[in-house]
């Protein structure tokens, strides 16, 4: 009996010693891991490394980051300050918050830092895209795309863009059950990208199919860079090739029609701009740019559109104030009830003609008629038999959108409160100082858009959704250029930011001006911030046209 108990005690001691040895080994390995990064500081720089933790060997703090989400950065910022170090996804990272700090990073492109995308993203999007270009090539590509997103180009996109918005809202309002707004917003922005930017004409089934293919590409952009069967990278490449094949024929047709000086979509502007700048775009460049244009217009704008609907749900007083503005600007029910589209019986061109695949250029038969108040009514088309939305909103113009000051404030506040992208990554080209710390060459640095918006002293009560902060009486964002950076800044700022704002304003006008909506769930959803801000498990909403439109 004694020997048996002694045997059990010996086994227990052995197990305890094994556990203790493992714990000691872990502690020692963590100290060595930390020491490794400490000695890798740039010894020629007098400033110390930022405070923070490098986590555990190899994995760093990646698992903490994945499980804690936005709380990971908040807790470490509160503990270590606006500049702290960590180790994520196999790389040493310095996280940066604050206008003055991110200013140095955004203005230091090609000098202090260079853009950094995951290898899988670079492979899937292709080497000829704007996000993958640096130096002079990047400048040349931005110059070409500048014409694509110029005010003149946006003015030509707006009528078709508004048609698509009306069309999608009609679908939302016809649904007997709740609409998942995030899914619906992605459908909306995909259609805008394909039909307005690329000018592609195709059946609804084809658009749904390509939307699923593009979703497959998006789901695998941030995957392990391993090209093996069933891998995320292989799936992403396959999706890209399907998209390229689909677009090549249409691109060839467009290139043959370049004798015309008329512009109908972003591709027309891009081909013209490339010729003006002495750059002949190859077919591969055009296909990659087409996918990049969808990429740029799709996910982030869908995120912002969802956030817009969410904030309108949360703040009925904001909706009421926006409705008053629409009335005062001649976009209310009374001002245009006689012009609301109700099908063939009133002879107006139906906003949902776009659903039938129709994208005719403006001519004498379909040219919009300008009114004195800056709005446009679509000219009659006696042969139009497409189904119609109940929207009474006339065709908008850039001038009319610019007059909607409060709507503009609402959109700006949505982008401040819930910026679609929480930040951006850069690779450090040479060691530099930031907030009293060294940022070593070769490390990754992430600037935080969301944290900067939340902590900027220029914003009164930043935790409150308050569109009036952007009004003429307060103009809080005017103090300090980099306190408000939803589209980034410097030479890497979002080239399509004006298009994104135009989409959001048009959506706001149509939804606020024509719809009623209610949350379909008991509580508002939590928001996930990585990689794109979106509601966890969706935002489910009932939409109906306002009773005054019936």
UniProtKB/TrEMBL annotation:
<keyword id="KW-1133">Transmembrane helix</keyword>
<dbReference type="GO" id="GO:0016125">
    <property type="term" value="P:sterol metabolic process"/>
</dbReference>
<dbReference type="GO" id="GO:0005506">
    <property type="term" value="F:iron ion binding"/>
</dbReference>
<dbReference type="InterPro" id="IPR017972">
    <property type="entry name" value="Cyt_P450_CS"/>
</dbReference>
<keyword id="KW-0812">Transmembrane</keyword>
<dbReference type="GO" id="GO:0020037">
    <property type="term" value="F:heme binding"/>
</dbReference>
<keyword id="KW-0479">Metal-binding</keyword>
<dbReference type="InterPro" id="IPR001128">
    <property type="entry name" value="Cyt_P450"/>
</dbReference>
<dbReference type="GO" id="GO:0016705">
    <property type="term" value="F:oxidoreductase activity, acting on paired donors, with incorporation or reduction of molecular oxygen"/>
</dbReference>
<feature type="transmembrane region" description="Helical">
    <location>
        <begin position="6"/>
        <end position="28"/>
    </location>
</feature>
<protein>
    <submittedName>
        <fullName>Cytochrome P450 26B1-like isoform X1</fullName>
    </submittedName>
</protein>
<keyword id="KW-0560">Oxidoreductase</keyword>
<dbReference type="InterPro" id="IPR002401">
    <property type="entry name" value="Cyt_P450_E_grp-I"/>
</dbReference>
<dbReference type="InterPro" id="IPR036396">
    <property type="entry name" value="Cyt_P450_sf"/>
</dbReference>
<keyword id="KW-0408">Iron</keyword>
<feature type="binding site" description="axial binding residue">
    <location>
        <position position="494"/>
    </location>
    <ligand>
        <name>heme</name>
    </ligand>
</feature>
<dbReference type="Pfam" id="PF00067">
    <property type="entry name" value="p450"/>
</dbReference>
<keyword id="KW-0472">Membrane</keyword>
<keyword id="KW-0349">Heme</keyword>
<dbReference type="GO" id="GO:0004497">
    <property type="term" value="F:monooxygenase activity"/>
</dbReference>
<keyword id="KW-0503">Monooxygenase</keyword>
<comment type="similarity">
    <text>Belongs to the cytochrome P450 family.</text>
</comment>
